[in-house]
Records
---
Amino acid sequence: MSSHPILFAVLMFASLCATIKIWSMVLRRAGHPWGKCLLMFISVIPFFGPVFFVFIDAPPVLPLAEQEKPFPKGTEIYPDFYPLINSIRKIFGQSKVD
């Protein structure tokens, strides 16, 4: 969001206005105080969500050359599971295909 700070500020202001409007509607309606608190908590999420997003330290995006390479076709990822797989094949009557 650092490339569009004015747009972010406008959106945050609009979100804050909507949150305050919803709070005033919730406080005016009849009902149990716990229900009002729950509705007020839910209505503040659209405002605080982007605020928390700004302060989250997301991991940097690695260049494609540094990203993990996919496993080549036919690579044995879990070779220790072959006894279990073979016993399951025996139980269900399938022959070993390798």
---
Amino acid sequence: MPIQDNVYGALLISAIDFILSFVIIGGIGLLLAAFPLLNRLGKLDDESLKKPH
């Protein structure tokens, strides 16, 4: 279904762009929210770092 080259097509593209911007911003938010969870999984304590290998 091609998008028409008139005002209605421009409004449709604007609506699609508006909705996709929320999807992308939400995805970035989920990615940023995952960083503290990943930090807990890879937690290191000082004692394990001070021991010789």
